[in-house]
Every structure is written in structure tokens, then in C-alpha cells.
Amino acid sequence: MAWEGRVNPMQTHPQLNLTGLTMAPAQVYGGIRLVPLLRSLECRDVRLELHRYQEKFARVQLDEKHTEYWGFVPHGLVLRWGEKDTLEATMGAQLKKVDNKRQDCQWFSTQTLHRMVKRESKNALRMLPLHLALEGFLALQFGGPKIAWKEYSRFALSHGLGWRSETAVLGKSIYGFEEALKTFEIHDGQVGVLVFVADKLASAVVLPSSADYRMLHYSLLEDYFGELIWRYALLYSDPQDLEVRPDTSQAQDLAGLRLALERAKQHWADFAQNVMLQDLVGRPLITQKVYEVAGMQLERFTTELDSSQTNTIGECLTRADGELLYLKTFQLSSTQTERAWLLRHLAAHDWHLERAAAAIPLSFFAVILRLERAGFGYLVKPHLLEEARRKGF
Amino acid sequence: MGEIKIVPLELFLTLLPSYPLTLLKTMPTTETITREDIALFINACCVATAQTEFYSSALEQRVSLEFLHEYICGNYRELYAHALNAGINHFNMQEIVFGLLSSGKYCPDGLRPSENELIRVGLQKLPPQRVWKLFERLRKTGVNNRRTRATIRTFIASRKDLAFDAVKYRHKLRSSLMHAHINLEKIHSSNTVPMREKGELERFLFEPIKIRKKGGNKDYAAFKTPLLEQFRTAHYSQEALYHLPYSIAEVFAAKHGIPREQFLAKIAPRMTEREKLRLQEKSGGRLELDPTRLSLTELCVYLLSMPLEERFGRRLEIEHWLKKSCGMIKTFPTLSGKIACVLDNSYSSSGSSQKKNRPLALAWAVHILIRESTAQNTVHALPYRAFWTSPIVDDLLVHARGQSCITERFLDALEWGATTVIIVSDGVENDPARAFEPILAGYRRIAESLGGCANVIHLNPIFDAELLEVRCLAPELPALGLRDGENLAFTLEFARFCGGVGTLEELCAWLGKGG
Q: Of the residues A321, B162, B310, B446, which has the fewest C-beta atoms closer than 10 A?
């Protein structure tokens, strides 16, 4: 059940690299700001296409030990690669093999998918976008304590964390997001978009080619977002005026005016990269390799968990030369960060509660209460919980 | 209808003696406000149709437009009525007539005769289906004053072929007659196609069609007027329905279960060009349409609905249609110097489901019109070039795609050396947003050193529901509402009242003489 044995270990990676992508001026609708990402060098040998699933629930078999991931998976992505210029973006009818097992229950239907990432053919790989990242997040320290310290409950010692769940909000339910996507004007050569809600980075999406982006533009509605983003969209529908105006005071001729316009665009790109993206770019990442194929590496990552900042999880596909082919991110809420932080902190101290408490520093019972508030009360023996509650830390 | 009155500035001064004088000097006069309000209103009335637009819903459009009508009707009633003459679109003419008739008690006695005349002339200009719809609305909203009844009576009396109206708009005509308490026998009618039998029309409208003759005869009571009789027979006979107007025949065809193809083939001679245009796509081109009879804007909308391959394949035909359509236009705009058009074919110009491709079609129509008028210039052909926001290789293959980079194309046009730049855009920029304003200001500052400032005109085919006006690219460059391509000369004439060149008196005189 412990995921460490199942997949590759985690690595600390310097930071996310957006080189080769330029940011075009933002398009604002209500509280939602969409920043187009353009690729200077069109990628012609890798394609991502959408694969829709109709069922209400998807059950993903993660390993041979019957670890399962359950969730609402409206679509998957199929990565195809080939020689240069041999791939075309396809739209609509394609003959596909029905590869998943479907099961009808009384009021819902499920389908069983085998693995988060699965090789479909010689040059195709199917993955479940964002679920891949979230699964990594949920499986964090899933095995539970490795040493049977006496504070842990019998359940924790025999089943680890047992099961974990997190909630997220579907793009469709974010106020104004559908309209924002509908009125968005896709640039030529656009391969991705940064979604800001109330100027908070909700998601960053990068795809291999502009044709893919055109196909997958509306699929953003079926991606999921942090709960805070949903709240922000409702609360802050008036965005700040962040537009950069060209400064023409120095211009003496038409070339000067054009230069002013170019400068304004450049200013915006710098501002977006350095200020608006500070939740993501420049942050140290903890990455984990998921799949490696044809010189490309599929990874999932989380920013180093820091409770004073917004933390993000995501997944990316990069080439060996560092070119970013695919990226999707999800913003964690503070409670989600807290949960992940606690688990990692405990693991760092070999799950020894007293040592972990001393490192924070907090008292032993305060840590137990903190665990309970984060939803991990079931890991600790009941009499300790009761004592902690009585002491009221 | 609310009574919103503008306080004259003099009175305002007496009310606020301590108001800082410096501010007062910069405050606009009543005359300026009036001129601006009316210019804004007429601009909006040229483009707004209360339908869904790319950036706003039908409801938003309707609410904004309703407010605008109430505000102008409440404050400037005389000018509001005169707007019927100002070349505005049919939807807003309908709204104005409704506004005037439903707020008759606020009309000063002195204005009544001229207002009545404006309404009468306005209704004659509208297509009949719109007038019948307006009468229906008057009935439903319970507007039934003496003037409304007289208006309906005058309109019905002026109809040339009432039997046709009775068949095509049976329900609406009947309800109008009831609403206005009209006795058809008593009104002096200009009906040029008289009924064959007295009282026949009343029988047609108010009695069931399938009534049997008195005296137990098995035959149903026939009409003597051919069209009415065909309507009656169409209930039983498949052949008779092909003599009826298309929209009516369609219902009978469904009733008799006639296959659609067979029906369309046989009804085609009875169809108007617009009906054929509407059905082009659904009939798969089986209906023969004569595109040379369409107006330039309609033709452009039709062409944009064609797939790119078809446009490419039928190039010669299409160019012929466009030439013919331009040939029907009476007045071309007077232009001089080097002319450049900055045309918006960004994704937003694809319009909405209700106004598909309309903004793009208007931009294209303006382009074709100006291309033709510069080529046909009496002395020598004027240099002309079009700058599409998303450049296209071939004019015929224009389609909506990409972002709105108006400012960049504007600079391209200036670099080319244009002396007149006509911008057709919905006023929304996003690459980068609102960059046009500083660039235009910068250009005007340095223009003298570059050898004279180019004349810039912004035409906007969209009403912005949020701003209650047609959106401008820069406050110094007021946008002109563009109703359709073929009326460009007329729209440009109106430009001086938006820019503050023309005074209020001139505006009133312009409205008075009918635009």
C-alpha cells in the first residue's frame, strides 16, 4: 500500500521552467483573467487528444495490491508521438477500442480504468489529467508509521492511512468561467493559458501544440480547481486594473510608437512572469517521475509545502532538453496544505510524535489535537485523543 | 414612463452658490449634454437589436436598451420622435413608436400633430410584419388610447392588399381590428385589390373557415376573393396551398404530410428572396437564390455562411454578385487621399448564435464598398488597402479568428501612409487591452512633424449593454454605430455630431429633414 515502493522516489527539483513560452496580454471577463501562453517554436511531433468518459465515477486500479483511486473523471488525455510532421490534430470521429470496463449500479455507473498512466499502443500513452497529480498528493505517506510506536491506533499500524479523500470544484461551477472561456480569443500559436481568479493563480495549462489547445480549450471546464478559487470567483468579480499602457511620451515617429507598444507587451510579460506567477514559478518543487517515454519525462510535483504561501500540485511532461510540453496545476487550500505538511513532518521524524512535536515546537498533546483537526484523529489511540481534548490545547 | 427632467445649468448655479467656480467652467452646458445624449441614442439605435451579442446576453441588451429609450423619451421627447427619421434600424423604430404611443399623456399639445405624422411615416417605412407585431404588443400591454386606435386605423386603411395581409397575418390583423374597434366597412381604404364580395374579409377573419352554407347544402361557404378561397381550399386540397404565401403554406404542407423536398420545389416561385436566403442551408442549395438581389450586408452574411472551399470554388460568381450588389448602392461615401481600413476579424467578430458573423459581415461590407468606391473614383483610382487584425491571404476566405490587435494594425496603416483610416471594430481590444488610446494620443502629438494628422474614423457594429453606448476605442474618438455596409455614406454624415463639430441646432435640423 505504501506508494514509495510502488513508484519512483521523490526528488527536489530546482523550479518549474517556462522557457520557450511567452505570455501575451491578458483577457479579462468578470473576475477571471486568462493569460495566453504562446510557444515560439511549434511542436510537431507530440500531440495530446481528449478521450471522453461518460460514467459518473471512475475507479482506477493503481497497483497489484488493489489500491484504488475513485473520482469523477470526465476525460482522459492520450499522448501520441511520432516523427516530425507526421501527426495531425484530430477532431471528432475516431475509431477507438473500448478499453474500459463499465458497470451499471442502481443510480450511478462506474468504469474501471487500469492505472493512472497507461501505454495504449506503441506510440500512445493514456493519462488522467490532474487526477495523476492528486493521486500523488493523496498517496503521500499512505503507508503510515513504519515503526509501531505505542501512540498509534491499531488501525494505523495495520492499514496505514487506510483511505484518504480530498474535494475539488469542477471548472463548470466556477462563476463566470464558462463565459470567460467562451469570449476568450485564442491567439495563433497559443499552446496554453494561465487562469487567474481574482488575480490568484487558479491553474496553469500548457499543451504540446496550438492545434491541441484549440481542441482542448473548453475541456478546462471539466478540469477541477481548488475550493478557494470557487469562493474567490463569487466574491471578487471586479478585477484590478493591471493593464500596462504604452508610454508614448518619448516617441518621435511611428517607429517610436510601435516600440512603445512592444515595450508595453514586454512589460506585461515580465510582470506576469515575475509577480503574478510567484506562487508557482521560482518555488522549489518536489517532483516525482511517473513515466518516461521517447525522450520525454512525465512527472508530478508539489511546491515545497509552506503554510505562509499558496501551494500547488501539478503534473508536467518535459523533454530531455527541458522543453515543457504539458503542464496542469491545481491550487491546494490551506487545510489541504496542512494535512500534507503534517504527514510529511511526521514521516521526517519517523512518525515519532514527541520528536515531531518538539521540532515544531508544540507540546505532545497539541500535536495530537492538530492531527485530529486535520482529520487524522483515527491514527492515534482514543485515550490519547480524549486526554488531549481534556487538556484543551 | 418616468419624468426625468434635466435641470438647466443656470438654475443649478442658483441652487449651489458655493460651488467651486473652476469646476463649473469645465462643466458641459445643457446644449452639449443634449447633443451628446441624442448622438449616443441614435448611434445605439443604429446597432442595437436586443439580441445576444458576443460579449452580452439578450437580456442585458434588452434592459440597457429599454433604459435608454425611457431616458430619451422622458427628457427629449421631440428629438426622440424625430429619431424615427434618422436612419435607425427597424427594431428601434418599432420601440420608439411603442414608446411614443404608450406615453401619449406626456406629449405637449403643440407637438402632437408632428409626432402623429412622424409615427405615420415611420410605420410606412417598417416592414409589415414588424408593424403587425407592434400592434400585437400594443394590445398585449393594454395601450389603447385614441391616438393608438387612430394610428392602427390609418395603417390598416393604407394597406394595398388587405386580403393578403388577412391570409398571412390573420391572427394579428384580427386582433388589431378588435383592439382599435375598427369597422372595416366604414374606413376609407386604399385597398387596390378589393374584395369580390362585401363583408367577405370580416367573415374570413372572424368566422370559422369550415362553416357550412345555410340551408343544409353540403358545400362549405366559398369565398369570392381568390386568395381567401385558396386559403379555405388549402384545408382540403394539396394543390391550393401552393398559391398561398410560403409561411402559411408550410403549415398546410405539414398538415397534409407533403414531403419537405416536394413542397419546397413547388412553393419556390411563391417565396421571397429573404425566405429563400433563410432556407439556403437547410435545403442544401436546392432553392434557387438570386444573390444579386440581396443588399451588400445580407450578401456578406450569406457568403460568410458558406464553407471556405465553396467560396474558393465559386470565386468568379461571388465577385460578380458583390459587384452587382455594390452597383445597387445609390450614394457612396466621398473619400480622398490614401485610404486604409483597419478591419476586425478577431474571434469576437463571429457574433452570437442570433447574429452569426454579423460584425464580420459588416466589416467585410465596408471593405468591399470602400474598395469599389475608391476604384470607381471619377478622376483617378484612389490608393486603398485593408488591414485585417488577423491577416488573410485572400479576401474571399475571411473568417473570424484570433485576438483583437487593433492598435498594431492601426500603426501598420499609418506606416503605409494612410491619410484616412477607417476602423471597423467592436471596440474591445485585448492585445494589449486599451492600448489604442495612448497610441492615438501619441500619434496626434507627433502628427504635425510627420506631415499632417490622418483622419481617423471608428465604426462599431455592436451596442455595448454595460456602457449603454457603442463602445469607443478612445474617448477622443467617438464611435459611430454602423447599421449596415450600404448606408456607410449616411453613417459618416452623422459623424460630425458625435465628435462635437456639429451643434445641437444643426443636429435638430438634420433630424428634421430626415437625416
A: A321
Which of A349, A341, A347 shows the shortest CA–CA distance to A370? Answer: A341
Distance from CA of B156 to the nearest CA of A (A): 45
The four Cα atoms B134, B140, B146, B147 give a dihedral, to 10 degrees, of: -20
> How many residues comprise chain B?
515
Helix ranges (H only) for B184-341 are 200-206, 226-233, 246-256, 260-267, 273-279, 296-304, 308-313, 315-327
Question: CA torsion angle for B97, B102, B106, B110 (degrees, to 10)?
Answer: 40
Tell me, what DSSP letter sits at residue A274? I
Q: Where are the alpha helices (DSSP H) in chain A?
A: 3-6, 131-138, 154-159, 177-182, 210-216, 227-235, 254-271, 334-348, 353-359, 364-373, 382-391
Q: 3-class DSSP state for residue B58?
A: helix
Model ipTM value: 0.87
- B448 interfaces chain A, CB cutoff of 8 Å: no
Is-contact A264 A246, C-beta < 8 A? yes
Helix (H) or strand (E) holding B342: strand B339-343
Burial B24-43 (b: 16+ CB within 10 A, else e): eeeeeeeeeebbbbbbbbbb
Closest chain B C-alpha to A106 CA, distance in angstroms: 39
Give the number of other Cβ atoms within 10 Å of residue A92's Cβ. Answer: 5
Chain A residues in contact with chain B using a Cβ-Cβ cutoff of 8 Å: 24-28, 36, 183-188, 243-249, 251-254, 256-258, 260-261, 264-265, 268
Residue B500, phi then psi, degrees to nearest 5: 90, 10
Q: How many CB atoms lie within 10 A of CB B89?
A: 16
B82: closest CA among B497, B481, B513, B511? B511
Instruction: Look at phi and psi of residue A176 and say left if phi exceeds 0, alpha if psi is from -120 to 50, else beta.
Output: left
Cell, residue B357: 458573423
For the stretch B59-63, contacts whose Cβ atoms lie closer than 8 Å and that sit 24 or more positions apart, written own/partner, are B60/B465, B60/B466, B61/B463, B61/B465, B63/B465
Q: Which chain A residue's Cα is nearest to B435?
A: A245
Show the cell assigned to B204.
374570413
* A282 Rama class: left (phi>0) / alpha (psi -120 to 50) / beta: left
Cα distances (Å, whole numbers) of residue B416 to A29, A260, B433: 34, 19, 24
Domains of chain B in start order, with CATH, are 9-156+165-195 (no CATH), 324-512 (3.40.50)
Q: Shortest CA distance to B462 belongs to which of B52, B35, B39?
A: B52
Size of interface A-B (CB pairs under 8 A): 87
Pull the grid cell for residue B384.
Answer: 486603398
Nearest to A103 by CA among A162, A53, A165, A164: A53
Select from B53, B439, B450 the residue whose CB has the most chain A CBs within 10 Å, as the one to mutate to test that interface: B439
- pLDDT tens for chain B, 515 residues long, are 445 555 555 555 555 545 555 555 678 888 889 988 999 999 999 999 999 999 999 999 999 999 999 999 999 999 999 999 888 999 999 999 999 999 999 999 999 999 999 999 999 999 999 999 999 999 999 999 999 999 999 999 999 889 999 999 999 999 999 999 998 887 766 666 666 677 888 889 988 876 656 665 555 678 888 999 999 999 888 999 999 999 999 999 999 999 988 998 899 888 888 888 888 777 666 677 888 888 999 999 999 998 999 999 999 999 999 999 998 888 888 888 899 999 999 999 999 999 999 999 999 999 999 998 888 876 778 899 999 999 998 889 999 999 999 999 999 999 999 999 999 999 999 988 999 999 999 999 998 888 888 999 999 999 999 999 999 999 999 999 999 888 888 888 888 888 777 888 888 888 876 65
- Comparing C-alpha atoms, which of A234, A225, A219, A208 is closest to residue A312? A225
Within an 8 Å CB–CB cutoff, is residue B178 touching chain A?
no
